Amino acid sequence: MKNAHLWMRGRVNNVRAVFSGKTIICNADGKSMATDDRGVPFFDPWINDEDKRAVLDSFNSRWLTGGPKAVEFEKLFANAVGSKFAISVNSCTAALHMAMRVLNVKPGDEVIVPVLTFAATANAPIFCGAKPVFADINEKTYNISPKSIIEKITEKTKAIIVVHYGGQPCDMKEIMEIAKDHKLPVVEDCAHTVGSTYMERKAGSIGTVGCFSFYPTKIITTLEGGMFVTDNEEIAKRAKILREHGMTKSAVDREKGSAWYYDVVDLGYNYRLNEIQAALGISQLERLNDINRLRVKAAHNYTECLKGINGIITPFTTKDRTHAYHLYVIRVVEKEFGISRNELFMELSKKKIGLSVHYTPLHLLTFYKDLLHHAVGDFPVAERIYDEILSLPIFPTITKEQLNQVVAEIKLAKEKAQ
Ligand SMILES: Cc1ncc(COP(=O)(O)O)c(C=O)c1O
Question: Do the beta carbons of residue 268 and residue 241 sit within 8 Å?
């Protein structure tokens, strides 16, 4: 087996990528080559031959950035998520920042965000001098709790950011009702989903703005990248200006109109997605249905195999929404399982199973603790969940063998504990 690895590593087409501190090796088709003794990676990128061709072709254009590929990607993406306007950006973080700017979030304002999320969600209001106000989560879905949102609304609240945790839409009906009652805009942080639905509507198209991520582990990738979507024409216009230095005309617009003049009307940024990334995005988007189907299939397989294990809680789902399974998160209930989440993490890590924990509740991290003066106990649900959650390997090309290996190691760890 060792020789086989050496042979595979020597091939020109093999790609190495590092995720969560692990080196992953994939072949030319992006198919996982992880074997038993190499364990199962937490994530394996799926870059196929069409993706590579699309990237190479994009170099033949005169436009390497800010050109027609980005516009094409935006149109296709808007259509895929059911929004009127899409503005491509170079990260979801950029999209979230622009969302705060278009909603006029300013120093002194408060923006409600879930406490169980990635730092970028809470940083967006801070970039504008505003305060992120954490809300606790739902015990079953780990999504922001509508009840907690209501408790956190004050006269300073300017907006609500929700995160569709792991790819499962939040309780959008309740959240939109609260937002309407208090005349507040809702930003959907869709970093974990492209295409999941809530009561027939696509995530990202329900609130005022939707923000997507195309980071490598996400549903589709442009390596780094993101998308800002909205149905509001004024907001879309302003976002486009903010993306490009506050300028009234992009380079493409100027060439089309044969006019060199532009004005700068706002404090803008360079948040553009380049043409090579856009070409990759278009190619990835073409197989969005396959990507989502394969993730769901893997998740259902996990659930089927894990549901009989005492002390393991599999993801909670309801019929009114679909789950994109960017993450497959289990809960390890120590009393029933026999060992804690941390102990199981160690056991599985020894077997080279790639794992992660999403997330440490933000109020427990140094920066937010110092900024917001929170204490342990402030968000009881998130804190309880945090001790028990474990994200298992999931990606479209995960094989049945890899999945079985993860399950077998979990069972073995339980047996050892008894
Ligand atoms: C919930 C959430 N929001 C925002 C982001 C930021 O995305 P990006 O890396 O594209 O800026 C991430 C990234 O992991 C995320 O998980």
Answer: yes
The model's pLDDT over 221-233, given as tens digits with 9 standing for 90+, comes to 999 999 999 999 9
Q: Which atom of ligand 1 is nearest to the CA of 95?
A: 11
Whether the CB-CB separation of 278 and 90 falls below 8 Å is answered with no
pLDDT, tens only, 134-143: 999 999 999 9
The DSSP symbol for 117 reads S
Quickly name the fold that domain 288-417 has: Aspartate Aminotransferase, domain 1 (3.90.1150)
Ligand 1 in reach of 117 Cβ (< 6 A): yes
Question: Which residues, other chains included, contact 3 with Cβ-Cβ below 8 Å and sequence gap of 6+?
Answer: none
Task: Give the pLDDT band (50/70/90) at residue 36.
Answer: low
Q: What is the longest distance spanned by two Cα atoms in the chain? A: 76
Determine the atom of ligand 1 nearest the C-alpha atom of 94.
11
Q: What is the pLDDT of residue 86?
A: 98
**CATH 3.90.1150.10-classified regions of the chain:** 288-417
Query: What angle is formed at CA 359 by the lines to CA 349 and CA 209, rounded to 5 degrees?
Result: 135
Higher confidence at residue 259 or residue 187?
187
CATH class in words for 51-286 = alpha beta
Q: What are the pLDDT digits (tens) for 101-122?
A: 999 999 999 999 999 999 999 9
Q: Where are the alpha helices (DSSP H) in 361-399?
A: 366-372, 380-386
What positions carry a catalytic annotation? 218
pLDDT at 202: 98
- Ligand 1 pocket check for 189: Cβ under 6 Å: yes
Asked if residue 382 lies in contact with residue 358, where contact means CB atoms within 8 angstroms, the answer is no
